[in-house]
User: Which sequence fits this backbone?
């Protein structure tokens, strides 16, 4: 399967360029800081005392400063949604980088973990060297008060606490824990506030110091009062002159007969603690993130009005609601917060219906998986309605308070900006496409989209009932408008014991579009490429990773029709 460089550059080029820039910044910071502490004259005596541990600890700290500042930016969801929706970033290829925000956040997190390990190991060596290499002539420079004492207690204590917090955050972020118990992930991840507070305290210890009087005390100079700060050599014709000047019978040594010049100390070395630079790195992103969180808190402090709650087959629940001045674009998602379920926990859900100029109603579909959604369902639906298999159940009652935060951007906003789009959904992954289909049902003419391939793969026949009515109405609409090729619907039932159909006379149009088994992706891409020669096709996927990987690979594949596929994937940030 040959890779098309044109498609590869469209899908991967900008992403890899940004990755290269990020790696280069990390390498440059590490190497520059390493050389500064290894060869810088102001750190001459400190380097003599600590050795390689000093260079590694400070170089890794520079990398940590950079990534501790960058890791917050992908979490500024409101800012990312503004950049995407306001067209402040005119290039679609550049806007697609915003879809990688979660990946970049994870990459920065892994980098922080790795270099935290390097930083801790280097400082353990430094603590040992401070004790072993204690020097009475450099009292200011020593972290220990006497030989064999372990100094730097306060920075060490805050460092240990930071490592413990980081360990909790990284272990609770693993896929297994996020799937089995999302509460643990959510609560531990919010410990990042504690982490940053400890970080600010950690750098205020002033453990490492630099020399301030390099002009009057060059490193390695000879003190005429008798202190020899380094094995510095004098030329032979100068040795007699300095022989008379050295007090205490400082006789002409052999080592003072080699070099051509000598450095003379005018005064004792003076040392001063480094000014902490970490706050310069993290203050901007941290203030930006805190300001956004405050804005989101104010924006979401008014509860929504729940219009209806519908129980769908296969443990899916639909909520329709209204909120004053709420606006959203197709493909965006919101974050639900129900204090009656959890005081702090909240979850993102893609909008399946967006408010328009004629109606203020918007809605989401929830798959009942996990403790939070189960408790949420029990509050909204009585037990008798939870077993509805085919026909939806609509319950009218007094609902608990529900707050929403958002909307936030997603890659599916771009699906209407392509002339041709391929939308692939797996199971409940159909939700982002539902809002797009609802938008096309209202009015498709304002958008650039002129052909939509919609592929939906489900394990059981009942799942298609979630949006069967919507698909039928949309299908009939375009037939009536003499645009039957505008939407190409293909439904795939991946697990079945025999031939099945979607029950109901009104679903006959969908039964003719229902296939048993899984899609033959390569043939599907070839057919789309053949029918859209020389065009750019937007590929959008929300479903299992197995499907996503296949589509990603096929999007980069070469074809003989000059068609380019641009791959997009749902990723909550």
Assistant:
């Amino acid at each position: 399967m040959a890779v098309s460089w044109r498609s590869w550059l469209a899908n991967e080029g900008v992403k890899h360029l940004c990755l290269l820039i990020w790696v280069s910044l990390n390498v440059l910071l590490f190497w520059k800081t390493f050389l500064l502490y290894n060869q810088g004259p102001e750190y001459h005596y400190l380097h003599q005392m600590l050795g390689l541990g000093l260079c590694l600890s400070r170089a890794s700290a520079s990398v940590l400063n950079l990534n501790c500042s960058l890791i917050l930016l992908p979490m500024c969801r409101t800012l990312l949604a503004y950049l995407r929706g306001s067209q402040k970033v005119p290039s679609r290829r550049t806007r697609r980088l915003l879809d990688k925000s979660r990946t970049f956040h994870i990459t920065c997190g892994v980098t922080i973990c790795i270099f935290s390990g390097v930083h801790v190991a280097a400082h353990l060596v430094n603590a040992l060297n401070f004790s072993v290499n204690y020097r009475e002539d450099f009292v200011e420079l020593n972290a220990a008060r006497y030989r064999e004492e372990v100094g730097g207690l306060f920075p060490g204590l805050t460092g240990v606490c930071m490592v413990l917090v980081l360990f909790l955050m990284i272990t609770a972020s693993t896929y297994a824990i996020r799937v089995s118990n999302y509460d643990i992930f959510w609560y531990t991840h919010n410990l990042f506030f504690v982490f940053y507070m400890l970080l600010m305290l950690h750098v205020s210890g002033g453990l490492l110091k630099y020399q301030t009087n390099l002009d009057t005390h060059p490193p390695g100079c000879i003190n005429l009062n008798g202190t020899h700060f380094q094995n510095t050599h004098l030329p032979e014709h100068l040795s007699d002159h300095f022989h008379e000047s050295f007090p205490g019978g400082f006789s002409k040594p052999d080592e003072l007969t080699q070099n051509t010049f000598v450095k003379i100390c005018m005064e004792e070395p003076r040392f001063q603690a480094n000014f902490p630079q970490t706050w310069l790195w993290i203050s901007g992103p941290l203030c930006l993130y805190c300001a956004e969180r405050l804005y989101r808190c104010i924006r979401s402090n008014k509860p929504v009005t729940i219009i209806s709650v519908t129980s769908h087959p296969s443990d899916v629940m639909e909520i329709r609601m209204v909120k004053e001045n709420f606006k959203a674009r197709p493909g965006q998602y919101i974050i639900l917060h129900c204090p009656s379920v959890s005081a702090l926990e909240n979850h993102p859900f893609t909008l399946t219906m967006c408010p328009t100029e004629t109606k203020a109603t918007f809605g989401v579909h929830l798959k009942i998986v996990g403790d939070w959604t189960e408790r949420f369902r029990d509050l909204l639906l009585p037990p008798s309605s939870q077993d509805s298999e085919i026909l939806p159940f609509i319950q009218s009652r007094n609902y608990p308070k529900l707050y929403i935060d958002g909307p936030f951007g997603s890659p599916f906003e771009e699906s209407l900006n392509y002339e041709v789009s391929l939308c692939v959904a797996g199971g409940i992954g159909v939700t982002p496409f539902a809002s797009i289909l609802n938008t096309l049902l209202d009015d498709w003419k304002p958008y650039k989209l002129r052909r939509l391939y919609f592929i939906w793969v489900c394990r059981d026949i009942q799942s298609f009932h979630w949006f069967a009515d919507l698909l039928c109405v949309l299908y009939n609409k375009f037939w009536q408008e003499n645009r039957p090729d505008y939407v190409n619907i293909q439904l795939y039932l991946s697990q079945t014991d025999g031939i099945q159909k979607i029950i109901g006379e009104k679903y006959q149009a969908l039964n003719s579009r229902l296939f048993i088994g899984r899609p033959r992706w390569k043939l599907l891409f070839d057919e789309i490429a053949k029918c859209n020669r020389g065009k750019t096709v937007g590929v959008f996927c929300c479903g299992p990773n197995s499907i996503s990987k296949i589509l990603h690979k096929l999007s980069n594949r070469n074809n003989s029709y000059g068609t380019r596929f641009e791959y997009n994937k749902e990723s909550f940030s």
Summary: The two ends are 32 Å apart (CA to CA).
